[in-house]
Amino acid sequence: MDRVSSSEEPTAKISSIFIYPIKSCRGISVSQAPISPTGFQWDRQWLVVNSKGRAYTQRVEPKLALVEVELPKDAFTEGWEPTKSSYLVVRAPGMDALKVCLGKQCAKADGVSVWEWSGSALDEGDEAAQWFSTYLGKPSRLVRFNAASETRAVDPKFAPGFKIMFSDEYPFLLISQGSLDALNELLKESVPINRFRPNILVDGCEPFSEDLWKDLRINGFKFQGVKLCSRCKVPTINQENGIAGSEPSVTLKEFRSDKVLRPNKKQQGKVYFGQNLVCKDSLTQGKGKAISVGDCVYVLSKASSPAEAAA
């Protein structure tokens, strides 16, 4: 059994929790977050798509970095249900606020796709479509994951049986403050954590120690580190102005590439920063499932080195 004795010291503590309701738009910092079978409640539940239903992300539409998203404060309490007066509020420079009702019935939109997945989604209507079309300067629509009829599985090679909504690959991404600090010591201009879009930021552990975490417990819930997070170009996009540069990718490549961390493994030209997680208890979801800022992180088992961690 992997129970943690009360005398065992925690490895780290949660310092921030972030949820990104609309994929590739700004995140929300919250004090607690309910856990659902697909990750945190509300995380990547919405997606902006083009006229063919294909996902827009910051990789091709960096202006999405400037889109702010707001949910009712009560939305992050356990068991909260939206009403017809509950709204997702979206704001961006030069735009009036968009209010999307959380309690309305939506029409089904077929042929929505994000990366390898395609299926139906729920279309949030013409007003939302016009708002994003005007902001991005091209035909766009806002859609919501259709959890009633669709599932999107996580790569079964790394996390069989788990699923997500519109996240890139896995339900949770964890990064330590120590890792960010170590990177910033090497950069001419430091970067904030929002470049890396984690769900869970922890503090109190050694830099990059999260690389090795395999089994951990947070507020009594079992989490599993399933894969080092390989990074795309999004961390090079300044989240305050939507402008891309070369850092931190250039510096990360020098000490966080597979060539450096995994020299005896097959080389794929990848750069790693953060650990993808699944919550084992999310598959038997019930009420009373939330984690909070300040919760201790107990590491129950580790890989022996980054080369031995899944990636």
UniProtKB/TrEMBL annotation:
**Biological process GO annotation list?**
monocarboxylic acid metabolic process
Domain MOSC: start-end pairs: 140-300
One Pfam family assigned to this protein is MOSC_N
Q: Which InterPro entries match?
A: MoCF_Sase_C, MOCOS_middle, Pyrv_Knase-like_insert_dom_sf
One GO molecular-function annotation for this sequence?
molybdenum ion binding
What residues form the membrane-spanning segments? Answer: none
Recorded protein name is Mitochondrial amidoxime-reducing component 1
Organism for this UniProt entry: Vitis vinifera
The record's gene field reads MARC1_1
